[in-house]
Design brief:
single chain, Rossmann fold, Elongation Factor Tu (Ef-tu), domain 3, 9-stranded antiparallel sheet, 6-stranded mixed sheet, 18 helices, cytoplasm, GTP binding, elongation factor, Selenocysteine-specific elongation factor
Length: 652
């Protein structure tokens, strides 16, 4: 297989019907771009045509030839996206015509900033007429992206001007900045067909990154999974296709009927299809209508075409020649990125009325005339990556992986990571996952600092309220704190937030419970007096201690003594002083070391106690994995030491 060319370019034609676009393409390339029998029979381009050539500099150029007739503008729009330069074709014997103006307006709305104005059929006019047409054409392009474009007279019949046209095209493409070959390839599909022996093939202009043989892709917005079976450009087989090239992709796992023009091939996770997008929309000065709220339009971007309705966010109407913030609503999803250009047309009678740029490809539903919404859109449109990211975080926490892959505001992974690092370093954001001190990981959560501080304060206030209501409890059960925090999914967001609050020193995680750092259980004087008498009685009868009820000890006080580590409750009504229990445990282990086993009767006799205490204590030792019951005896548990005698219990 041949290697990919170093810097491919795509050039698109534009202009009125019968002004010689296809004839010029054939003269330049030797390839007839009209591939349909109907096109050849009618001598009129109906759908997109494709050809290619090498310029004198060696630049490889793909040519997309578009139909000029007003009935086929929709086909023209499917091919003009992603081109590096435009050839605006004007027939010298007719001069600029209606579709010349509409195609020029489309190029202007799509911001195709480089191109040439080609005057064709010069063999049919004299020099004076050619000068008049040149002057009229220059006036027509004034104020558009092609205002300063060179005018090149040619004749496809005689070949006059073709070398000059190639040289001028070489010069225009020399100013095109190199395309970044990143990890965000997108192929808007403009053709779908079957090749016998190979199966499903799609074509398009590759944007944003390379495609490789064997690469797994998704078909957006449908979500179908496919794999690259073969790659071809200009009839040459490739291992890798570079951004900016016209490429044919042989796909496995999908049928022709599964695909259509307007679908987008991209890696998994790159795009997030949505039925709403936020845009800055400009209406053409000669638009035949003023846009009103809920206006119906036909929406075009890349190779996609969808009917849509418009929510005007900042004004009641958008008159011709003016711009506005608009939320575009679709009946079915569309897959776009921030910065994508688009065209809108009146559905009937069909005519181009405006276009603009996608600012947010996945917005929430907005209410009209809200200053905060308009301010956010202004930031998205003109802000730096850190400003855009901070604005998003101010609406709530975001998992870092949801910001990557180009699905968020069109930012690259490096831009997201650098922006997050800057926000954290400047104290404007907090990363939850590594204590906020490390580079972002996909599973980390990013918070705007005010939002994090509010959450942290809410967690602290919830725990403090529990301490006030339950002063004899060691802390708030962790699951209860999780429930009260009302954090959005996923559940581990709570775990990361709690860990960050612990790192910040405002909470203590004791395992089952959470407490404030300064909190300690403290019995009031009356309870303390009763507790002291009870503990003294336990110490006086270490192997047959009195029951709590004998001292009128309530459950909360007993629980507090357990949490303070002063007593160990081994069973219902059986409570030891902590030191007495530890002594019993040690003695039981000594007896097992000596004798190998211990019966209930043996315990009772050795400690001179009753069956009640012997049974409760041995069962507690079993629960703590100090001992293990075998028949009527106890033996030493193999994992002895795993238990933690005297540890506070969960009393939730």
């Amino acid at each position: 297989m041949t290697p990919s060319p170093p810097q491919p370019f795509v050039v698109g034609t534009a202009g009125h019907v019968d002004h010689g676009k296809s004839t010029l393409v054939k003269a330049l390339t030797g390839i007839d771009p009209d591939r349909l029998a109907e096109e050849k029979a009618r001598a009129m381009t109906i759908d997109l045509g494709f050809a290619w050539l090498s310029l004198p500099s060696g630049r490889a150029v793909s040519v997309v030839d578009v139909p000029g007739h007003e009935r086929f503008i929709k086909n023209m729009l499917a091919g003009v996206g992603g081109i590096d330069a435009a050839l605006l074709i004007v027939a010298a014997d007719e001069g600029p015509m209606p579709q010349t103006a509409e195609h020029l307006a489309i190029l202007d709305l799509l911001q195709i900033e480089r191109g040439l104005i080609v005057l064709t059929k010069t063999d049919a006019v004299d020099a004076d007429w050619l000068d008049l047409v040149s002057e009229e054409t220059r006036e027509r392009v004034a104020g558009t992206v092609l205002a300063a474009a060179p005018i090149v007279p040619v004749s496809a019949v005689t070949g006059r001007g073709l070398p000059e046209l190639k040289a001028a095209l070489d010069a225009a493409l020399a100013a095109v900045p190199p395309r970044a070959s990143g990890a965000r390839p997108r192929l808007p599909v403009d053709r779908v067909f079957t090749v016998p022996g190979f199966g499903t093939v799609v074509t398009g202009t590759l944007l944003g990154g390379e495609l490789a043989l064997g690469q797994e892709l998704r078909v957006f917005p449908r979500g179908l999974t496919t794999r690259v079976r073969g790659l071809q450009s200009h009839l040459a087989k490739l291992d890798n296709a570079l951004p900016g090239s016209r490429v044919a992709v042989n796909l496995s796992g999908v049928a022709v009927e599964d695909l259509r023009r307007g679908d987008v091939l991209a890696p998994p996770g790159l795009l997030a299809p949505s039925q709403r997008i936020d845009v800055r929309l400009r209406l053409l000065e000669d638009s035949p209508l003023t846009l009103e709220q809920n206006a119906a339009v036909d929406f075009f971007s890349g190779a996609a075409e969808l009917p849509a309705r418009l929510t005007l966010l900042d004004r009641a109407t958008v008159p011709p020649g003016e711009s506005g913030w608009v939320q575009v609503r679709f009946r079915e999803p569309i897959a776009l990125l921030k910065g994508d250009r688009f065209i809108v047309r009146r559905p009937s009678p069909s005519v181009t009325i405006g276009g603009g740029e996608v600012v947010d490809p996945n917005p929430v539903r907005h209410r009209r005339f809200r200053p905060e919404v308009l301010g956010a859109l202004e930031t998205l449109a003109a802000g730096s990556p850190d400003e855009i990211l901070l604005q998003a975080l101010e609406a709530g926490p975001r998992e870092v992986r949801s910001l990557r892959g180009g699905a968020f505001a069109g930012l690259s992974d490096n831009q997201v990571d650098e922006a997050l690092a800057q926000l954290v370093a400047e104290g404007d954001a907090r990363l939850l996952g590594r204590g906020g001190s490390a580079a972002p990981r996909p599973g980390d959560f990013a918070y705007a600092m005010p939002g994090w501080e509010r959450l942290r304060e809410r967690l602290v206030e919830t725990v403090a309220a529990h301490h006030a209501a339950q002063p004899l409890r060691p802390g708030l059960p962790k699951e209860e704190l999780k429930r009260r925090s009302k954090l959005p999914p996923p559940p581990r967001l709570f775990d990361e937030a709690l860990a960050a609050a612990v790192v910040d020193g405002v909470l203590v995680d004791d395992g089952q419970t959470v407490r404030l750092p300064g909190f300690r259980i403290a019995l009031d004087p009356a309870r303390r007096a009763v507790a002291d008498r009870f503990v003294a009685a336990l110490e006086a009868a270490p192997h047959a201690p009195p029951a709590p009820a004998e001292f009128g000890l309530d459950a909360d006080t007993l629980g507090a003594l357990e949490d303070l580590g002063e007593v160990i409750r081994v069973g219902d009504g059986v409570v030891y002083a902590a030191a007495a229990y530890r002594s019993i445990e040690g003695e039981v282990l000594r007896l097992l070391e000596r004798d190998g086993e211990l019966t209930l009767a043996g315990y009772r006799d050795h400690f001179a106690t009753s069956r009640k205490y012997a049974q409760a204590t041995l069962e507690y030792l079993d629960q703590r994995r100090i001992t293990r019951r075998v028949g009527d005896s106890r033996v030493r548990f193999a994992g002895v030491g795993a238990g933690v005698p005297g540890a506070p219990k969960d009393r939730s």
